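We both want to read discrete structure tokens more fluently, so let's practise on a single case. Would you write everything just below, so we can both look at the same thing?
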Amino acid sequence: MSELVINHLAIRSPDATATRDFFKKTLALIEGPRPDFPFPGFWLYKEDSDLSSYLNAVIHIVAIDPLNPSGLNNYLGEREFPSLRGTGVIDHIAFYATGLEEKLAHLQHLGIPIKERLVPTIGLHQVFIEDPNGIVIELNYPANERTDLNTKLGITSAT
């Protein structure tokens, strides 16, 4: 059987710059090379990625140019503007990460509202945020990284 992994997510955004800045600030992604498409946009990579390979881009931000939408529409197809808010039929996008306490402090510093949940059965601490387009982003961390909450709930580091 062949391997199947998610390569990237693409976000079609009416404010591509704000979307790019959000992901750079919140997830420490870096802007990298992008093919010369007939529409504007940005490709974001993990900090430790090999930027010489387009295959390492994690997020593709597709800019909507209201003055010249034909390049985008011809390449990816037209989308109705109201459907470009939130995640539509996709509930959320999730990333696995480490460094929970640092990320929580960083998000608080940026003034980004968060929701947190603990999934004790599988030892997962979830942090939910929204990007400027209303897309729900789930960040999953090992539950033992959230020591103050674990103590409150009586969870040991063996979880």
In short: Residues 9-84 form one domain. The first helix runs from residue 16 to 27. Strands lie at 9-13, 30-32, 41-45, 57-63, 93-96, 115-119, 124-130, 136-142.
